């Protein structure tokens, strides 16, 4: 597993194009990975997850993958400094049952409408937290309580992610960012969540969990 840190140039033509259309951003990132025979899910095959974080008035993009990327594919001027890529193995090796970690994840909390089968976004913070707690039960972690018994997680609304796959297909993702602490309950399930991500809209910047030792 590899984790890359891309410090993007917000004035570059390519980043401005990608920021306006998340499908272009997805394609730009996927250009760093080898092509596969037609019909294979390239993102899934390479295990690509990403997240765009605001940082000191600009943006840093984190990209995780099974395959080592070649960021020389990015257009000149897309980054303000060379891409930094490292192995994620030390992070995976440090996952143990009962360990408390701080985490950040941009996610797409939704529910499936039983009649239309459409995915409806959760817009209330309590519903978004409940979604996270349920995901934790499935993916091998729990959210400890903070003062007052509330889950020790901050929920931040991020700008709606938009774009177009083509003239007919519009992309709209109402994502939120979770920052807080979690406790690992099942090493296998949690490691799988780190590797494969959580929830929907993984091609569009959701589902990547970043962890660090809790202080």
From TrEMBL:
<dbReference type="Pfam" id="PF08798">
    <property type="entry name" value="CRISPR_assoc"/>
</dbReference>
<protein>
    <submittedName>
        <fullName>CRISPR system Cascade subunit CasE</fullName>
    </submittedName>
</protein>
<dbReference type="InterPro" id="IPR010179">
    <property type="entry name" value="CRISPR-assoc_prot_Cse3"/>
</dbReference>
């Amino acid at each position: 597993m590899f984790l890359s840190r891309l410090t993007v140039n917000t004035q570059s033509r390519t980043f401005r194009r990608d920021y306006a259309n998340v499908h272009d951003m997805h394609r730009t990132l996927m250009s760093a990975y080898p092509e596969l025979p037609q019909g294979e899910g390239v993102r899934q095959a390479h295990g690509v997850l990403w997240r765009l974080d605001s940082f000191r008035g600009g943006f840093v993009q984190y990209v995780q993958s099974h395959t080592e990327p070649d960021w020389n594919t990015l257009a000149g001027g897309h980054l303000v400094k060379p891409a930094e890529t490292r192995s994620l193995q030390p992070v995976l090796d440090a996952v143990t049952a009962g360990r408390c970690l701080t985490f950040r994840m941009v996610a797409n909390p939704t529910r499936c409408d039983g009649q239309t089968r459409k995915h409806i976004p959760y817009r209330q913070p309590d519903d978004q937290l409940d979604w996270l707690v349920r995901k934790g039960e499935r993916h091998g972690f729990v959210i400890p309580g903070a003062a007052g018994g509330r889950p020790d997680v901050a929920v931040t609304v991020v700008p709606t992610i938009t774009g177009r796959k083509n003239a007919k297909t519009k992309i709209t993702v109402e994502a939120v960012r979770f920052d807080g602490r979690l406790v690992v309950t099942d090493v296998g399930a949690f490691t799988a969540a780190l590797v494969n991500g959580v929830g929907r809209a993984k091609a569009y910047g959701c589902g990547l969990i970043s962890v660090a030792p809790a202080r």
